[in-house]
Amino acid sequence: METILLVFGCVSFGSGVLLAVLGSSIPHRLIDEINERSPADQQVDTFRLTETILRRHQQLCPDSSNRRLMNAAMISGILMWAAGIGLLLDYSSLHDLNRNQVLGPRQRSIAGTLSAGPISRNTYNYTFSVGANSYSGWGSMYGPEPKIGQQVVIYYDPDDPTVNALGPFEFSARERAWKVGIGLSLVLFVITGSVKSISVCWKYWDRSGFTTPGAQ
Q: Can you give the pLDDT at residue 74?
C-alpha cells in the first residue's frame, strides 16, 4: 500500500506541475487572438495577462478554445498537484505507522541528553548511549521550554539504535485504517481526475489549434 501511495503521489504531483506549465504557456495565444480582432492602435504588446486583458479577450473571443484550455489546464493542474501532496503526506504517515507496528513491541527506553536546539518549531538534538556506542537524533518537544543539557527519555530500536525518537513508537489500527481509506480515496480521485483532465484538455487543444511559441 505504501508503494501505491508513493507512486500515485509522485505521478499526481508531476502531472499537476505539467498541467500548470501547459496552462501558463497559453497566454501568448490569447494575446494573438485579441490582436487579430483589434485595430492597429489597440494592439496588446505584452504577454502578461491581467484581469482587463482577460475581460477584453472574453468580449472579442467569447468562444475561444484557448481560454477554455488554459482554464482547464490550470484548474486540473492545481487539483492534481494538491492530490499529489496529499498522497505523499499520507504515504509518510502510513510509513511511520507501519514502522511503529514493527518497532512498538520491541522498543526500549533510555535516558538521553539534549545537546542543541531549538531549531524550527521546538526541534532539539539529543544524544544517548547504548553499551559502548553513542547515538544522536532530532525530535520535537512541547510544553515548557527545556534546557540544553537536560535529561530526556529516548525510545529506540534495540536492533538498530540509529532508529530513535523522543516519543514512543505508537501504533493505532484505527488510525492506519483511516490513512489507508484516505489514500485509496485520493488514488481513485487521481485516476478519475487524470482521465477527465486528459479528455477535457485534449478536446480544447484539438479545437484551439494550439502551438507553442516558435513552433512552425
A: 85
